Amino acid sequence: MKQYVIDELGSPDHESLRTYLQERYGPAAMDGIFWIPVEIGMLTDIQKTHHECQPHYLAVELDKNRMALELLVRSKSALRCDCISYASEDQRNWIIALIDDIFNQLEIMT
Length: 110
Prior knowledge:
Elements: E1 3-6, H1 11-25, E2 33-37, H2 45-49, E3 56-62, E4 67-70, E5 72-75, E6 85-86, H3 89-105
């Protein structure tokens, strides 16, 4: 699995991130797993046409000492579909910038 990982998080950082993710994206789907919706403008052509699979998400796993962002664009309504794929370069750059912005907002040094 392709991932963007930020490790060596301290306990206060973990709590700040958990609170932010819960407030912004809702409670964790499973323990420590948050779903970040991909903005409509960031969808690939095939993802835009698959209305039944929307919204598309990227999963973030928040552990005690690290955050791992899976770079697989998923759908909650389909497990297998042509629209489920690794993030395009634009999607990857967008989500990494979003995660980096969260760290900046929360003043978490990495």
